[in-house]
Design a protein that fits this description.
This protein is mainly α. It is built from seven helices and three strands; from the N terminus they run H-H-E-E-E-H-H-H-H-H. The chain has a three-stranded antiparallel sheet, with no helix packed on it. The N terminus and C terminus are likely disordered.
């Protein structure tokens, strides 16, 4: 059973913001270039059954705020606003969601061992931000393994690479190209 972005339901709150059957599945490069597509990929990885309220844990009661992209409100408790990064190690950072996905893809799919300096140069962030990003991704893998595994599967599906079936040319790729 593959939990990729195109397999989400096409109606109700679960499909809001997810890739649906009406639109073609985007390429990996398109996801890395678009904050909206990156957000939808992360939402599908975090909430496979649709957004869940952080306070009351209601499923199917989420409503997107039209004035703030990526922000959800709960119609059940009417007391909670949240985003895909709320309650995760990625919360509170000013790094774009696309940058998080580029780094996660480089580490998990392309299996690159990147130093802090390499991340800093390739993503155009400061050394301390790059260090924090690497630490937060490690924390994400440790505290939210389900989300990390779904992200890994979705990125592998988009890149055309499956786990444990990567060609040798990708295994030895250097840090020269972290994107698609």
């Amino acid at each position: 059973m593959s939990e990729n972005l195109s397999s989400l339901p096409s109606s109700g709150a679960a499909a809001t913001g997810a890739f649906d059957g009406a639109r073609p599945t985007p390429s990996l490069g398109e996801v890395f270039e678009s904050e909206a597509l990156s957000r939808r990929l992360l939402e599908a990885a975090r909430w496979p059954q649709g957004p869940e309220c952080l306070r009351c844990h209601a499923l199917g009661a989420a409503c997107r705020l039209t004035t703030r992209p990526g922000l959800w409100t709960c119609k059940a408790c009417r007391n909670c606003q949240y985003s895909v990064t709320s309650g995760t190690p990625l919360h509170g950072t000013r790094v774009t969601l696309a940058s998080w996905l580029v780094l996660f893809n480089a580490q998990e799919i392309r299996r690159q061992r990147l130093s802090v300096s390499q991340v800093s140069r390739k993503l155009g962030v400061s050394y301390l931000t790059a260090k924090s990003m690497l630490q937060r991704l490690d924390e994400l893998r440790e505290k939210m393994p389900g989300m990390a595994e779904r992200m890994k599967r979705q990125l592998a599906d988009l890149s055309g690479m499956r786990e444990h079936t990567m060609p040798a040319s990708h295994m030895s790729a250097g840090a020269g190209n972290m994107g698609a």
